[in-house]
Amino acid sequence: MGATRAGNDEDSGQVDRARKDTDRRIGRRALIIGGTAAAVGSAVLARDELGRLWWRTPGVEKPREEGEVDYAGARWVAASDANWRRADRPDDYGIDMVVIHVTQGSFASAVKVFQDPGHGAAAHYIVRKDGYITQMIRELDVAYHAGNRDYNERSVGIEHAGFVDRPQDFTDEMYEASARLTARICARYDIPVDREHIIGHVEVPGTDHTDPGPHWDWDRYMKLVRRARTAAA
To answer: Which residues pair with 84 in a beta bridge?
Structure first.
């Protein structure tokens, strides 16, 4: 499945903060300048962190309703909360990318594993061969789908039911429904409709996945997305 190993990217490595004091003979001016720079740097980091965490303050978080979807054509089925991280995008993390996946399995099996807390991964949406769309994670939140923490935080992930080596799985209905969904996401977050911002899972740095594979027709898909984006505008 396109997102199978993505959960591990949320693990943060431990940073060694120990520093050997190799020169205690530091001039007063250097100490003042260095101290000022450190203070400014710390203030910037603190401000950035506060900016990302502001929504955790009681009464500040955007209102949410159970079962609410971000795309009108989707049906809500909740993923396990072990497979995504609560956020308040795009206020804490800007969204500038859509990542295209293929499930390497059926629609039903993808829904099942995304509901499994032991799976460690899930995408925001799954598109079925007949064009039916299920949303399993809110776009507000960070889904563990890309295998790269930075890309998870800045993207929306869309799975497509099927197998990368079976071009017949990528039906007209699937392409068209997915293109309308991607066009709506791009419109909502002002994402450029191009291949730098609409990418395959295989293009995410550090991933070992190959989806959507050689049979995914990117030229056709991008034309459909542009057409849907123009129609929506």
So the answer is: 143
Pull the structure tokens for residue 215: 């049979």
First to last CA, the chain: 34
> Which residues lie below 8 Å from residue 158, measured CB to CB, with a gap of 6+?
98, 99, 100, 101, 123, 124, 125, 126, 127, 178, 181, 182
CA pseudo-torsion sign 210, 212, 215, 219: negative
Q: What is the pLDDT of residues 30-86, one digit of tens each?
A: 333 344 344 444 454 444 455 455 445 544 567 888 899 999 999 999 999 999 999
What pTM did the predictor assign? Answer: 0.77
